[in-house]
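Sanity check. The docking grid for zinc ion depends on where the pocket ends up, so I'm generating a full predicted complex first rather than guessing from homology. Inputs follow.
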Amino acid sequence: MGFLEKQTDPTTPMHWRGDMQADYFYPSGIAGDKFFKHLKINDTFLACKCAKCSKIYCPPRMYCEDCFVEIPDSNWKEVPTVGTVKVFTVAKLNAHGKNLAKPKVVAFINIEGTDDSMLGIINTNNLDNDFTGKKLKAILRPHDKREGTIKDILYWEEV
Ligand SMILES: [Zn+2]
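Predicted complex below; grid placement will be based on this.
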């Protein structure tokens, strides 16, 4: 069944194979913008604390996701670019199902001094290692090469 054919059988699956152009633009938002501008010139992350529930977010948010209360600038602070692995996986295929030249260890990392986590790539050749609970440090681009994006975090490595 083609895209322009009229469907007469409601039980017929409605799909067709083809390509569709989809362009995306994801703004980092006010809090994300401040986070990345800070990271561009500093070697620390920014975090923020909800005054109501005390949850500490990193990257910071304008509002607490649990309480829905605004988090003012006065509740923002710097935290070190270190964290602890909560979970990890070894990726051997890219998004198109092709083998990666080198497998990547992708980890969900709890940022020290916060209740929040970020995804990161662990720089390692030891793919059989259990990284759960390991302490990591973010390796950042040299200052003169930073762009104020997530790419300023090159990778994470064990402390
Ligand atoms: Zn809260």
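Relevant for the grid: The chain has one domain: 29-158.
Also worth noting: The mean pLDDT is 93.
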